[in-house]
Write a structure and sequence with these properties.
Blueprint lengths: L2 H6 L10 H8 L3 E5 L4 E3 L7 E7 L1 E11 L5 E12 L5 E2 L1 H5 L7 E4 L3 E7 H10 L1 H37 L1
Antiparallel strand pairs: 1-8, 2-7, 3-6, 3-8, 4-5, 4-7
Helix pairs in contact: 4-5
Length: 167
């Protein structure tokens, strides 16, 4: 088993894969590297890759329109989260699952490396090994559900704070 394959075992989205499935999955990945300060992709762009962060860190941000004192709209970037290699994160699942626009910008905080997994590779994997596809999609659904629970909690906190501030 290669070093890349061993590292893949640590990504939550691949939990339940056996060694042969990890080896097969690793062959579908394409490496990518970007320098610090460079955007991997921008909010509003199209894309169909899921990314596995293997080295470095990235900032995920969205544009936040604000009304300035001059009643003009000002756009600022709001950092949603910073992902680091030691947590074995993956991101970009919206591009993998839908044909819509990217919902956020991903910027390298330092020189970073990734493994890309495309929508076409997902289709191929499901066709070649349906069991592997089910495990992958189940794990992805679990990750998305966890993110939704956190988002709902954050919205509730913000709504409560706004309600208190306005009363």
């Amino acid at each position: 088993m290669s070093n890349q394959t061993i590292a893949l075992n640590k990504f939550k989205i691949l939990e339940g894969f056996n060694d042969a499935q990890i080896e097969s999955f690793a062959k579908k990945l394409t490496p990518a590297t970007i320098e610090a300060g460079v955007d991997l992709f921008e909010e509003g762009s199209t894309g169909e890759n899921l990314y596995f962060l293997t080295k470095g860190s990235v900032k995920i941000s969205q544009k936040l329109p604000l009304l300035s004192e001059k009643m003009a709209t000002e756009i600022r970037d709001k950092t949603l989260i910073i992902l680091q290699e030691g947590h074995y994160p993956c991101f970009g699942e919206n591009g993998l699952l839908s044909s819509g626009k990217r919902k956020a910008t991903v910027t390298a905080m330092e020189d970073s490396t990734f493994l890309k997994f495309s929508k076409q590779c997902l289709s191929d994997m499901i066709e070649e090994d349906p069991q592997m596809g089910v495990i992958f999609l189940y794990n992805l659904a679990e990750i998305i559900a966890e993110r939704l629970v956190k988002t709902n909690s954050d919205v509730l906190k913000l709504t409560t704070a706004l309600s208190i501030a306005l009363s």
